[in-house]
Structures are given as C-alpha cells and as structure tokens.
Amino acid sequence: MSLEYPLSERHHNILRATVRHYIATAEPVGSKTLAEEYDFKVSSATIRNAMGRLEKIGLLYQPHISAGRIPSDSGYRIYVDRLMTPNEAWGRQLEELYTQELDWGNYEIETLVQRAAQILATLSGHIALITLPQNANNTLHHLQLIQLNAKQAMLIIVMDSYQTQSVLVELPLLLENESDRELVEEELQILSNFLNHKLRGRSLSTLAQLNWGELDRDFQHYTDFLRLLLKEISRRTQLPSSTPIAIRGISEVLRQPEFSQLQQVQMLLHLLEEEQNQLLPSIFEIPEVETPADRVRIRIGAENQLEPLNICTLIAANYHQGDIPVGSIGIIGPTRMFYENAIALVEAAADYLSEALS
C-alpha cells in the first residue's frame, strides 16, 4: 500500500526525524526541535518550510494552531514503506525468550499460545493477538451449487468431518442473463461436478493458492466466478467464527495518551472481548500467493476496515505448519508505535511458532 509522493532526500530525512521524535515523546514536533536535535546542517527556517511542504501533501498535520506537527496515517505509511528497517535485534530477543519460557513438549497448545501472547505483549508494550492453529489437514469432501433465482446461487460446502456450511453467491452475468432455468441448473451441476473433481480431498488451506490459469479450456469463461467461489470457500472454512484468539496486553496499551477518550476505549474493548468474529478476518488472512515481501501485513489508522481500529495500527503475520498457514500473530497499538521493533517482533513470533509446529 505504498504511497507515491515527489519528495527530496531532505524531505524524507525530515519526515523520518519527525516520526521518530513524535513516537518517542508523544509531543508535536517543531522545526526548532529538529534543528537542535538532528544534524541537518540547514537552518530552522529551511526545516520549517520542508515541514510545511510535508503538511501540504498530507504527511504531517498540526493538532492545533500553536502546536508543532505530528505524522498523519499517510506519513506513517511512507515511514514504514520507505524510511525504516525492522530491528532484528528485538526479533532475536523475542526468540530467545520463547526458547527459555515455552516448553512445547509439556503443555497443551492453547496454554502455550496464551503464554506466547503474553511474552509478545510484554516485550512490545502493545496488545498481542495469536489465533490458535487450525487443523491444516482438513479437506474438502463435497460442494454443491444450487440456483435460487436469476441472480443468486447457494454454495453448500461439506468438509471431511462432515461439517456443513452454506453461503449465497452472486451469479456471473453469463448465468444471470440465462432465461432457461433448466439450462442454468444443468450448468451449475456441471460446474459443481468440475469443482468436486478438482478440489475433493485437497487441504482447505491450499485452495487459495491453486493456479486457476491451468483450468480446462471448456471452463475458462468461469475463471473469475471460480476465483470468487474459491475465496469464499477459503474464508468460510479457514476462519470459523469459533476460532479462539489469545489476547494479552490490553491494560498496558490503554495507558497510552491516544486512548484517553472513553468512547474509543469502550469500542476497542468491545471489539476485543465481544466481537472477535469480526476481528478474526483482519488478523488471519490467507493470500492467493504469499511472498516474503508482503508477509507482514501492516494497516495504519483508517486503513483498518473496523472502526474501533481507526486510531490503531495492526501488524500481523501468518504462522505455518509446513507450507500451510494455520494461524496468525498480531499486534495492535496506537499509530504512534516503534514500528521497527513491532514488525520485527511479529515476524520473529511467526517464525518461532512455525518452527515449533513443524
């Protein structure tokens, strides 16, 4: 989600210094402070002009007229994408603590995940969330598409445990405009047979990673529809609403000045305690292709779809059993966080749990 702005090296350096100073102090930053504490070799007036430019394009703003400037969500995004490097030393410290404190041979997995979340919360100073691992061996037993009307069909999913789920899906135009209901039902049955042939017995965790460019020629015109169905299957089977999330560190992070408004705190607590089914899709995502470059997911402020998280940053990464993602680790804190440390901690925790499960 990198943003493009025509900034000079000086602008980048001043933005970096402003973000770091504000993260460390929680106080708006002025040009005089930057001139005194950072060796820019330019005058305070030059720094002030540069900060004005950064404010004009939306990377900094003034909380009130007489104050200095603080980073916006976009300013943090530029900082994370271009101006910082994760603190690998913090990641190694977390791995050492996990090795010392966690004994995977003597405890139930739920107990270990709870303890791992507590260590992560303590070291990061933020709310730590770890989903319990899902069964990576669950497989698809059967699915069926049934037409309901001219625009909708019902997808029925049966897993190898014979757990059943159903979901409404929108039909593509090629089916929506079909006047012969019997022909539509016949095509849906053929498509159901095709999907069962391709997917039966496959691990649910691998469905989103299939290469649909290799579909049989006769079904190429269904590719987009199949991709939508596949995402829905993965979402429904990988993110059951009953999946527990280990959450630690709430009391520590709520002491931060960003959470001084009671209504904001109440909304966040309600989400964490009562609406985990809404929170889960934001933490545990299974991408179609997972690459090292986008392994850690970072949503800053308004980039979060859930309103209680609009004043927060969510950093998350999946952990794996073998090559299959089975759970996720996340940190929630104010947008004013030490991103270098937090990103390294989440990545290290995901690596550790993946190694332990494998």
TrEMBL record:
<comment type="similarity">
    <text>Belongs to the HrcA family.</text>
</comment>
<dbReference type="InterPro" id="IPR002571">
    <property type="entry name" value="HrcA"/>
</dbReference>
<dbReference type="InterPro" id="IPR021153">
    <property type="entry name" value="HrcA_C"/>
</dbReference>
<dbReference type="InterPro" id="IPR023120">
    <property type="entry name" value="WHTH_transcript_rep_HrcA_IDD"/>
</dbReference>
<protein>
    <recommendedName>
        <fullName>Heat-inducible transcription repressor HrcA</fullName>
    </recommendedName>
</protein>
<dbReference type="InterPro" id="IPR036388">
    <property type="entry name" value="WH-like_DNA-bd_sf"/>
</dbReference>
<dbReference type="InterPro" id="IPR029016">
    <property type="entry name" value="GAF-like_dom_sf"/>
</dbReference>
<dbReference type="Pfam" id="PF01628">
    <property type="entry name" value="HrcA"/>
</dbReference>
<keyword id="KW-0805">Transcription regulation</keyword>
<dbReference type="GO" id="GO:0003677">
    <property type="term" value="F:DNA binding"/>
</dbReference>
<keyword id="KW-0678">Repressor</keyword>
<dbReference type="GO" id="GO:0045892">
    <property type="term" value="P:negative regulation of DNA-templated transcription"/>
</dbReference>
<dbReference type="InterPro" id="IPR036390">
    <property type="entry name" value="WH_DNA-bd_sf"/>
</dbReference>
<keyword id="KW-0804">Transcription</keyword>
<comment type="function">
    <text>Negative regulator of class I heat shock genes (grpE-dnaK-dnaJ and groELS operons). Prevents heat-shock induction of these operons.</text>
</comment>
<feature type="domain" description="Heat-inducible transcription repressor HrcA C-terminal">
    <location>
        <begin position="110"/>
        <end position="343"/>
    </location>
</feature>
<keyword id="KW-0346">Stress response</keyword>
